[in-house]
Write a structure and sequence with these properties.
By secondary structure, this protein is of the alpha+beta class. It has four domains: about 60 residues, no CATH class; about 45 residues, no CATH class; about 30 residues, no CATH class; about 120 residues, Jelly Rolls (Sandwich), CATH 2.60.120. About 10% of the residues lie in helices and about 30% in strands. A hairpin with a 4-residue loop joins strand 7 and strand 8. The longest helix is centred in the N-terminal third of the chain and has 15 residues. It is rod-shaped. It starts with about 20 loop residues before the first helix and ends with a strand. About 10% of the residues have low confidence.
Amino acid sequence: MNAFQIPIPKSPFVDKNTGLVNREWYLFLNSLFQTIGSGQIGLATQVLHGGGAGYAQIDLSADVTANPLQAANFPGLTGDVVVSVGSLASTITANAVTTLKVSANAVTNTRLAQMATLTLKGNNTGGTADPLDLTVAQVLTQLGLAQATPITNSLSGDVTLNAGVGVYSTGPSVAQGTTGTWFASGTVTIQGATGGSVISAKLWDGTTVFDSCNTAIVATTDGTLSLSGFIVSPAGNIRISVADSAVATDGVMLFNASGNSKDSTVTAFRIA
């Protein structure tokens, strides 16, 4: 028998009739003394195991069949990660302000989940949702800058500048609509009239001119004029118009002097 197997008396320690130590307590203490004196108390590094004599080290694979550290006994943690007393949970939750604290700059970019190529974090679902890896096109759509294909158009035939001195004739134009901010650019090729030409050109929407130029062209020779600029909410088709300020006879806006059929072309694309 070892010391932990000696039953503890249930009677009072002192006999009330004699005022002396109760006989049952005397026998208990005597047995305890004899047991301890026999050397069966074991080493301080050992724990009680089984019902046999003496002590043995605990077998974690056989003796621990339930959770030895109950959540209720788990202490609170402080520092960068804060866990409430009596809880084993230490995950980041929706209530992170009270259950988990991460110090500033502790979560670096390298600790975040990898992202697909050419994507940005965002949410384009229209409601509350987890972050998503958005493509460039999706981001532009969210910003109201939907990626659009540039609109371009070229003259398909020559335009004779014979409407009158200083009267503009329409060259290449695009139908882009009236919404948004647009950048447009273009070039026209002019063949001077037989008496020479002083050409004025403008890039406009039929109402607002957002670029213009003026140049002299020697008789029957070719020259080019290039224009570009920005316009917000254009009133009509973006176009290049040309007028001869000197004579109104046989100057021509050319479409194919180069043989490539793109000699007078305008292009526009929406930027906002």
